[in-house]
């Protein structure tokens, strides 16, 4: 009898290891185009984490680790990066990943008209195929952030034959080399992905299907989680923490984030915040600590820099300034426009909207005339990208390399430099920081950058986030990361 019970337990263990099933994830918004070359949203990266493996990944400690590339090395002069590709990798259309395929992807990211990755790969002067499993990236100048770029969308590999076959409809199918294949997308409703049997690391995948549902209202996301309609709710609101903790069927998982919220300011001619004195007054009017307490229940981290307080590249000599209402009023009195009137754009989900309204109240008390306009996330991206804004409350999910947290917004050629910031001194320091790999030297240079942007204020960083996830007690194997991506390797869901 004991042997029968033991055998039965073994069968149960095997069934649990290959339980399959469908995992339902509630997203904070709907992604934009599901094409790594064109994507600009954070939730798009969450979906890509399941569909499109990258050359390099990052672990929960922000270290670079192998994914589609098993090894990489710099040349002695830091002007070439050589990568060895994993053997036996299949794209989801059955084609094989080799050096030619990797080179085709990198060339597309570097030069395609639709690519938003050009700035990230701008220093790459050539991509060479060394042998079927080796590629070499030649650089015009040393560029330390390249590894971080290859650990993000610029490192995601798509079948070249699929790219040719699908053309402008690539986002409809997206034949990548990840564990799940894109099956269906209904805008504003759902994204369905199914297990890819030919995945190179198939043993790590326990799920058969994943359904992503965009639900912008965090309250509605929580209701769906509590009722069993969702298994994971990403980016719950700080005020939802107590409810998750009090429900025995749910688990709360939090993780300090690389991500931050910032006020992006349009510096184009004729815009109401063009005067630097007005921008200084705007910052002086904002109480970041009170904002965190009122809107985020004290869960987030008040911040004024693109790097989180206490992190490796944070500048301790420029701490978060307190609110100074008298200073704000005195500065406005000296401004070219004593009562600037501007519209603050924000995402239409509750936390961002409430934060915008608190900022509005604080700034109006100082003498500004602020109006708040809330809109759907993709519409917000489109409007700010077009330059049709005064100021916008924006989210950046954060990167492990400091360059990826500051250059995207403020480099003169930054791909998110929607506010037209252009300071040659900033660009010169940034160029020097990109050219060195020695950490202490990079720290000094990136801290010099904070002195420039904290004086110019083209962005006003407000706070760093904490990733807050609500999980059904049926979900096992989920490990959070500072980048906020949901990696599905090892994740299972009970029937």
| Count of individual beta strands | 19
What is the rounded Rg? 23 Å
Q: How much strand content do the residues show?
A: 15-25%
- Which CATH architecture of the largest domain is right? Roll
Instruction: Report the end-to-end length measured between terminal Cα atoms.
Output: 28 Å
Helical residues, percent: 25-40%
Which stretches are low in confidence, meaning pLDDT under 50 for 5 or more residues running? 1-18
How many discrete structural domains? 3
Q: Give the CA-based shape.
A: globular
From the 3D structure, determine the CATH topology of the largest domain. Answer: Dipeptide-binding Protein, domain 3
Q: CATH superfamily assignment of the largest domain? A: Dipeptide-binding Protein, Domain 3
Report the mean per-residue pLDDT as an integer.
93
Number of helices, where a helix is a run of at least 4 consecutive DSSP H or I residues: 16
What class would the helix/strand composition place it in?
alpha+beta
Largest sheet: 11 strands, mixed
Structural descriptors:
495 residues, alpha+beta, D-Maltodextrin-Binding Protein, domain 2, Dipeptide-binding Protein, domain 1, eleven-stranded mixed beta sheet, four-stranded antiparallel beta sheet, 23% strand
Fold and architecture overview:
- By secondary structure, this protein is α+β, with helices and mostly antiparallel strands.
- It has 3 domains: 125 residues, Periplasmic binding protein-like II (D-Maltodextrin-Binding Protein, domain 2, 3-Layer(aba) Sandwich); 125 residues, Dipeptide-binding Protein, Domain 1 (Dipeptide-binding Protein, domain 1, Alpha-Beta Complex); 210 residues, Dipeptide-binding Protein, domain 3, CATH 3.10.105.
- It is 33% helix and 23% strand.
- The chain contains 16 helices and 19 strands.
- The strands form 4 sheets. Strands 1, 8, 9, 10, 11, 12, 13, 14, 15, 16 and 17 form an 11-stranded mixed sheet that branches. A 4-stranded antiparallel sheet has the order 4-5-7-6, with helices on one face. The protein has a two-stranded antiparallel ribbon with strand order 2-3.
- Strand 6 and strand 7 form a beta hairpin.
- The longest helix has 18 residues.
- It is globular.
- The N terminus is likely disordered.
């Amino acid at each position: 009898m004991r042997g029968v019970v033991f055998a039965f337990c073994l069968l149960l263990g095997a069934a649990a290891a290959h339980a399959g099933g469908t995992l339902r994830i509630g997203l904070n918004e709907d992604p934009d185009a599901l094409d790594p070359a064109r994507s600009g949203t954070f939730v798009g990266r969450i979906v890509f984490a399941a569909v499109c493996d990258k050359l390099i990944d990052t672990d929960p400690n922000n270290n670079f680790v192998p994914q589609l590339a098993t090894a990489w090395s710099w040349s002695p002069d830091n002007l070439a990066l050589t990568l060895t590709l994993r053997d036996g990798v299949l794209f989801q259309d059955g084609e094989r990943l080799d050096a030619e395929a990797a080179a085709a992807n990198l060339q597309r990211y570097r030069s395609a008209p639709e690519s938003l990755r050009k700035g990230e790969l701008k220093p790459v002067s050539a991509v060479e195929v060394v042998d079927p499993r080796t590629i070499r990236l030649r650089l015009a100048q040393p560029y330390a952030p390249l590894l971080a770029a290859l650990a993000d969308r610029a490192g995601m590999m798509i079948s070249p034959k699929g790219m040719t076959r699908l053309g402008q409809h690539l986002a409809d199918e997206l034949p990548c080399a990840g564990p799940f294949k894109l099956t269906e997308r209904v805008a504003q409703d759902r994204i369905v992905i199914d297990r890819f049997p030919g995945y190179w690391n198939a043993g790590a995948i326990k799920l058969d299907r994943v359904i992503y549902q965009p639900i912008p209202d965090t309250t509605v996301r929580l209701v769906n989680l509590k009722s069993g309609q969702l298994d994971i709710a990403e980016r719950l609101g700080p005020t939802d923490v107590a409810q998750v903790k009090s429900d025995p069927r749910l688990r709360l998982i939090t993780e300090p984030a690389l991500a931050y919220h910032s006020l992006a300011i349009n510096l184009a001619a004729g815009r109401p915040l063009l005067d630097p004195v007005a921008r200084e007054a705007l910052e002086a009017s904002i109480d970041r600590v009170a904002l965190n307490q009122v809107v985020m229940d004290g869960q987030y981290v008040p911040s004024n820099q693109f790097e989180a307080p206490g992190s490796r590249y944070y500048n301790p000599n420029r701490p978060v300034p307190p609110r100074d209402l008298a200073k704000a009023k005195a500065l406005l009195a000296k401004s070219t426009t004593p009562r600037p009137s501007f519209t603050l754009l924000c995402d239409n989900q509750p936390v961002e909207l409430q934060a915008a309204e608190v900022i509005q109240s604080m700034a109006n008390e100082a003498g500004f005339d602020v109006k708040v306009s809330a809109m759907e996330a993709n519409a917000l991206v489109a409007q700010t990208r077009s330059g049709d804004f005064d100021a916008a409350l924006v989210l950046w999910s954060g990167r492990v390399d400091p360059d990826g947290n500051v250059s995207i917004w403020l480099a003169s050629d930054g791909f998110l430099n929607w506010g037209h910031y252009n300071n040659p001194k900033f660009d010169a320091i940034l160029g020097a920081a990109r050219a060195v790999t020695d950490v202490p030297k990079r720290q000094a240079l990136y801290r010099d950058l904070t002195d420039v942007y904290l004086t110019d204020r083209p962005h006003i960083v407000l706070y760093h986030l904490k990733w807050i996830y609500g999980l059904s007690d049926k979900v096992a194997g989920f490990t959070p990361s500072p980048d906020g991506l949901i990696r599905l390797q090892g994740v299972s869901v009970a029937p």
